[in-house]
Specification:
single chain, 108 residues, alpha+beta, 2 strands
Length: 108
C-alpha cells in the first residue's frame, strides 16, 4: 500500500528576494551583473573568497548582565545576498576544479 504525500507551503511563503511576476525590480541589472560575472582568474577567485564570508559575521550571542541576547543573521537583509553567495560558490568551484587548489581554508 503506497500513499502519496505532497508538501504544502503556507500560502504567504516566498523565498528571499521574491518579486511578483511583472513587478519592477530596480536592482535587476545589478543582480544580472553579479550572477553572470565570470570567474576565470585565480587571483580574482581568491579575492572573492576572502571578501565574501562563508557565514554571516553579524550573527552572535551577547551576554549582558547575566542574560544572553541573540543577534540574528542580518545578511539576508542584503538584497544581493543570494547573488554574492553564488559568486563565492563559483569562485570556490573554480579554485577547486580548474586550479586544483585546496579550498578548505575558505569553508567555515
Amino acid at each position: 500500500m503506497s500513499s502519496t504525500h505532497t508538501h504544502q507551503h503556507h500560502p504567504n511563503f516566498h523565498p528571499p528576494n521574491y518579486k511578483k511576476p511583472g513587478a519592477f525590480d530596480v536592482l535587476r541589472p545589478l543582480r544580472g551583473l553579479v550572477d553572470n560575472f565570470p570567474v576565470k582568474n585565480a587571483r580574482f577567485a581568491h579575492l572573492v573568497c576572502q571578501v565574501i564570508p562563508c557565514c554571516c559575521p553579524f550573527e552572535r550571542d551577547i551576554n549582558l548582565f547575566g542574560r544572553t541576547i541573540h543577534i540574528p543573521a542580518l545578511c539576508k537583509l542584503n538584497p544581493l545576498y543570494d547573488e554574492f553567495v553564488g559568486l563565492r560558490f563559483r569562485a570556490l568551484s573554480y579554485l577547486a576544479d580548474e586550479c586544483g587548489e585546496d579550498v578548505t581554508k575558505y569553508i567555515c
